[in-house]
Amino acid sequence: MSPASFACLGLLLCAALHAFDAHGSGLRALRITAGDTPVIDGALDDPAWRRAPVYQDFHKHQPRDGAPAPGALKTSVQVLVDDGALVFGIRAWDDAPHLRRGLLARRDKVGVDQDFIGIWIDPAGHGRNAQFVRITTGVVSDGIHRAEDDESDLGPDFPVETAVTILPDGYSMEVRWPLSSLRFPYADGRNWRLMVERSIPHADGMLLVTAPWRIDALSHLSFLQEIDGMETTVAAVRDRRFLELRPELTVRSERAAMPGTRTRGSQAELGLEINARPRADWVFNATINPDYSQVEIDEPVSQGAGNIALSLPEKRGFFLESADVLGLPLPAFYSRTVNDPEYGLRATWRGPHADATAMSLRDEPGGLILRGKPYETLEYGQTKRTVASLVRARWQGEGLLLGAFASQRDYHRFGGNDVVGVDAQWRGEGADGEQQQLSGVAMVSRTTAGFVDDDVPARVAGRSGGYLWGKSLHKTERWWYEAEVEAIAPGFVNDNGFVPQAGIARATGSINRILGPQSLGGLELYEFETYLVLHEMRTLADRVTGQAGGETVERKLRPGVWLAATRRTGVWAELGFDRQRARPLGRLHDTRVINVGIETTPAPWVSKIALEAALGRQLDADADRVGPGGNVILDVGLRFPLPRGWSLELDQHVNRAWVQGTLGQPAFSDTAWRALAIVHFSPRDSVRLLAQNTWAARRDDGVTQLEAWNDRQVHRSLLYRYQWRHGRTVSLGIVDDKLPLVDERSRSLTFKLQWEV
Questions:
Q1: pLDDT tens sequence across 200-234
Q2: What angle (nearest 5°) sits at the alpha carbon of residue 330, between those of residues 563 and 560?
Q3: Distance between CA 97 and CA 170 in Å, rounded?
Q4: What is the mean pLDDT of residues 334-348?
Q5: What's the burial of 580, exposed, middle or buried (CB within 10 Å: 0-12/13-18/19+)?
Q6: Class of residue 79 by CB neighbours under 10 A (exposed 0-12, middle 13-18, buried 19+)
Q7: What is the pLDDT of residue 236?
Q8: How far apart are CA 482 and CA 507, in angstroms?
């Protein structure tokens, strides 16, 4: 063979080996020294990138077909690891780069309407939890995803450093993810697992991933791939200590006015957050006198004319550190039961097969205490200091999770509430690929804290109660079965959790038929499903209150359809053959409704349009009657580019619920309107204007002659915020709240400085 032939053969072997590296060997990390760490500027021109393995095996997930990614939208990933961080280099090609979408937006608002790169990491390697970030130009969404309920929590913020470089044929990106914010066992842990995704909205909402998902999977975390090359890194950094001190200064001036009274005042307060990791498997958190006044307020959501409380998501950082370990059903722990902590302490441990967390907080007066009944949620004011404590531990085996917890709310001389419980979850896969999951929770409570005479807190005779919950999921390629049962004894109380109803038992079952892609006239559907939901809720007998057992509180029979189409459009519709009872021994009303919903992103400047509507016979719980009515929720998100690289983000929310009376007007109405406008000057600073109105009214319905009333609240706020880097921010906010019908008004000016050390 000639020398030229040998040279040609050598080149072919090199090319084949590189191709095997890129496509056949999975995701590999290149270990580098600190001196080789790239500058995070978005350009993949540092020497380390020339040595790092390249991974290009992306698959098309949405529309869901699992096919290889189109060649014109090729994407590559490289991973570097040093003693302090994982560094990702992503190259994204695009044959229509002028259509790329990536305007500035709020943190955690990177959605499918934008081009983004998503990185999902499971440092424990057991497939039950993953930390993730999604990055577009200067904006990050991040959080924790739990496989147990297949839900993402956008609360946690990770100190990732990102940069994007726009290229004539696409873009490149660099992401530095500090190891200090990744949670993994000290020793004997499994291999880290990773998935990278790419969103391309102008290509009909395409989503590319580094491994094809199965539509019948219980959670996509099972598709994360192992990262080769991490073994020495984990051993090298597991003993490294990380300490973050985040002091904050809050200065506030307030004015308040009500008929005959005017007050004004100012105050300055210091707060401190401490986050410490003495080694890889332990994390300690503390918060002292935190100020939550400028946490973004919740969207107003009407519960209609019902009397059952609604849960809200958490937005405060202290409660989010171990959200993965504390992945319990909602009745176990609900962080919003803590209103204004004077201090809080928390410790979290993660091992290769077990983890645990414990916390204790001293809560100042001002919060609400919820106690559930079959037909309503009772609310009591928290007028005294309390201490909320919780301990949680889990063991994880192959497909099996076992957990235990204990919770206490100490009202000191006014009594207390103690809860202990166990939980379990099993996952399995049949020989033909069927996915199965069984989950269960059992709790028991003992309560000596009660309320007497005008809701005054008092120690009362102790009462016990139990809680049972179970759920079964079974998924195949074409069928999805789900069954859930729950029983809450009349005496069960969990003041650290969320129990809006007690003294009830309920069962819910659903069957989904997955029909896959379909043609509907001239419309091509990416997915089409039909389903049937059955639900029954009944009372449990209570000798203390005299509540009879076996009363039907709620019954539902709901056949429906769901479909997905172009432009990220999802549509669902169902018929509700429902019946509801409003009070003990009351009438079981016929409350038939039509429920419809649609969500879509029809244009580049629309981040989301979502509409949900329930129209038909609505129950007015206070009046114990049914009338024509409905509940309509509309959310519209818009984004517009502005000169100088600025952007405008608009977020509109409207919610109206009503029950018609017999006199030609609504007997009850509840309306909420929220308008949010944010001008982003850069990824670091923005101005936020929020306007929010809520009003509710009851009028003569011509039947019950209930007392008429009106309630209206008006909120306006303006906030400027500048962030030097993660954990270092300064903000100035103005808030104006009014109750116009009673002539009450309060205004405040707040300056806050937070500086992470």
A1: 999 888 999 998 777 667 788 888 888 887 777 77
A2: 20
A3: 5
A4: 88
A5: buried
A6: buried
A7: 73
A8: 11
d(CA 187, CA 191): 11
For residue 745, give Cα distances in angstroms to 381, 714, 736.
22, 9, 7
The pTM is what? Answer: 0.86
Quickly tell me which residue has 């807190």 as its tokens. 457
In order, the DSSP letters of 322-333 are TTTTT---TTT-
CA angle 733, 736, 740 (to 5 degrees): 170
For residue 729, give Cα distances in angstroms to 343, 393, 624, 752, 754: 22, 35, 51, 8, 5
Cα separation, 573 vs 579, in Å, equals: 19
Give bridge partners of residue 435 from the DSSP assignment: 429, 475
CA distances for 327 relative to 127, 128, 425, angstroms: 14, 10, 12
Who's near 738: CB < 8 A, 6+ residues apart?
713, 714, 715, 744, 745, 746
Please tell me the distance from the alpha carbon of residue 699 to that of residue 423, in angstroms, as a whole number. Answer: 47
Q: Strand, coil or helix: what is 11?
A: helix
Residues 6+ away with beta carbon under 8 Å from 48? 30, 32, 36, 37, 38, 80
Cα–Cα nearest to 426, from 460, 403, 458: 403
pLDDT per position as a tens digit, 295-323: 555 566 555 555 666 666 666 667 766 67
Average of per-residue pLDDT across 515-529:
85
Token pair in block for residue 323: 């959200």
Query: Cα–Cα distances in Å, from 130 out to 120, 177, 280, 332?
Result: 6, 14, 16, 22
| Cα–chain center distance at 317 | 13
Q: How far apart are CA 621 and CA 501, in angstroms?
A: 15
Q: Is the pLDDT of residue 21 over 60?
A: no
Q: Tell me, what amino acid is at 338?
A: V
DSSP 225-270: EEEET-HHHHHHHTT--EEEEEEEEEEEEEEEEETTEEEEEEEEEE
What distance lies between CA 210 and its chain's CA centroid? Answer: 24
542-570: burial string, b at 16+ Cβ within 10 Å, e else: beeeebeeebebbbbebebebbbbeebbe
Amino acid at 217: A
The tokens describing 428, both together, are 């399995």
Contacts of 582 (CB under 8 A, 6+ apart): 375, 589, 619, 620, 621, 622, 624
DSSP state of 502: -
First to last CA, the chain: 66
Which tokens hold the place of 154? 């956008």
Coil vs helix vs strand at 301 = coil
Task: Encode pLDDT of 165-195 as tens digits.
Answer: 999 999 999 999 988 888 888 888 788 899 9
Structure tokens at 167: 């290229």
Whether the Cβ atoms of residue 306 and residue 374 lie closer than 8 Å to each other: no
